[in-house]
């Protein structure tokens, strides 16, 4: 027999002989034996003592069964299980398997990493412990109906993380059926959709903002059309210029997603329509960001003053200059915002005999919208406009 046993396994035969000599049955074990050509084969060996009529051990019965195919199947099964484990534990979703009645008996590692729980805590219906109390009853009722009917399940709800954070998950479960259509088990996943929901909420908010601001824009345009002096020969031109000014500010708002807008960016957007006259304008001030409503009110005023300066003021002559300066003073709730438009080097200035809609735009609109104090001076050396208000009104 020893010729069949590899040299490094000869001690197995020693153990067999000793056990049989004591009249003991050798428990079955798996080992390796040697073929005639020297190749090795996996076998399962069973050895039993053979007794005579008096019960004495007179021989041994040995059975060696070729285990090559069985071991190959086991290896393939182990490899398959390892691949499944690698896939399940490294997928981005939380995953679980339940029996046909909905009793969950397996979770992937992602589930335990996220929830900070163990299988003993989560087995069966223990998963309710990590569900938000506002949603738990609804989720249990719905999924129970699907477990009973065998229909695919889908729901969205928050789950608590190990750190106590609630995150939203899109959850699905599909029944796995046998050849006759009966449900064997359920395979489910939970996909984190928190960022997606936040993005959708942001898009919805932006759409509402677009709708709101579009209505406001139409209202402003209607107001401009109604209040502009239709008897003036340049009525159409002035109306179109004011609408272009609104459009320029709208472009800035859209580019900034209706968030805060730097003063310089707002001013430059309105002065772009002045063409070469922009070279006669200087801007000076710190980095100050305006709220969308404040930017809208100031943009209309700056557009109006720019148009007037080109037609009648400092920008109507090459040597004329416009200085735009702004600053913040104080801190916190006591902060004051100040911005001014100062013209010089232009034709002599005098106060207009009649104040039209343009005057309302540079005085009344910012004063009402920003609760601001407006000072206008028509000094001979140049027009001067100063706005001052509480910081929170514009910031």
Helix content: 40-55%
When the domains are counted, the total is: 3
Using only C-alpha atoms, the radius of gyration works out to: 43 Å
Tally of contiguous helical segments = 12
Distance between the termini: 96 Å
Q: Can you name the CATH architecture of the largest domain? A: 2-Layer Sandwich
Sheet with most strands? 5 strands, antiparallel
Provide the β-strand percentage band: 25-35%
Q: Write the element-wise H/E pattern from the N-terminal end onward.
A: HEEEHEEHHHEEEHHEHEEHEEHHEEH
Shape: rod-shaped
Q: Quick one: CATH class of the largest domain?
A: Alpha Beta
Overview of this protein structure:
The chain is α+β, with helices and mostly antiparallel strands and 395 residues long. It has 3 domains: 65 residues, Beta-Lactamase, CATH 3.30.450.20; 101 residues, Beta-Lactamase, CATH 3.30.450.20; 166 residues, Heat Shock Protein 90 (2-Layer Sandwich), CATH 3.30.565. Helix content is 41%, strand content 29%. The protein is built from 12 helices and 15 strands. A 5-stranded antiparallel beta sheet has the order 5-4-8-7-6, sandwiched between helices. The longest helix is centred in the middle third of the chain and has 34 residues. The chain starts with 9 loop residues before the first helix and ends with a helix.
Topology:
Layout: H1 10-21, E1 26-34, E2 40-51, E3 57-66, H2 68-90, E4 94-99, E5 104-107, H3 109-115, H4 119-122, H5 136-149, E6 153-160, E7 166-177, E8 183-192, H6 194-227, H7 235-255, E9 261-262, H8 263-271, E10 281-284, E11 289-290, H9 292-311, E12 321-329, E13 336-344, H10 357-362, H11 364-370, E14 373-379, E15 382-390, H12 391-394
